[in-house]
Amino acid sequence: MKNKETILVVEDEGYITRVLNTVLSASGYKVITAATGAGANALMSSRLPDLVLLDLGLPDIDGIEVLKKLREWSGIPVLVVSARGMEKDKISALDYGADDYITKPFSAPELLARIRAVLRRNGKGKSADDVYSVGAFAIDFTKRQVTVDEEPIHLTQVEYRIVELLARQPGCVLTYDSIISQIWGPYAISDNTMILRVNMSNIRHKLEKNNMAPQYILTEIGIGYRMAETEEERQ
Length: 235
Prior knowledge:
- 31% of the residues are buried.
- The protein folds into two domains: 119 residues, Rossmann fold (3-Layer(aba) Sandwich), CATH 3.40.50; 103 residues, Arc Repressor Mutant, subunit A, CATH 1.10.10.10.
- It is elongated and about 50 Å long.
- It is built from eight helices and twelve strands.
- The protein is of the alpha/beta class.
- β4, α4 and β5 form a beta-alpha-beta unit.
């Protein structure tokens, strides 16, 4: 099996580390491990892994602090793997730069799918020439044109910017606050999500066959939205 990317597993529970090592190695990834935040910081700077699987409950430094320190100098993608399932923990990790968040316990296929998605996003870049598509939905960033079943969809300027923002990072969860800040500016009232919800409702009426069961723009309840990345992800 051809070797793939290097993944740094930051986990203090030996059993979980061994399981992750087995699963990832069997899928062709090169695995390095750290049991502490300090060890993770050292390996991230010296080995420059392609992706970090980061537990938040580390014995010396909280995982959020490890993430914040990493984001001071690097965009290495981070997938948080944590037993903390509270919305505030997920939102905090995403706001501080995590690319995705998976809650323990999880299945190996789901973990591998999320890893593939994060690595694809990181490798794609954000070229203005890209055309993103999933199912019948497509967006041509150069032409600023959105189509469903090859039929043009008219979006307002704000609606298009929201769709473009999500489509530029397919599969990535964007929090309500981050979307509001990027669309309406850093001084927008971030705790008032009504304007975003209204725009999202209008977008879904235009894009989705059934806006109550969206296939393209998916809701992470209490956190934000993400654009479906693959056919399998469509609900």
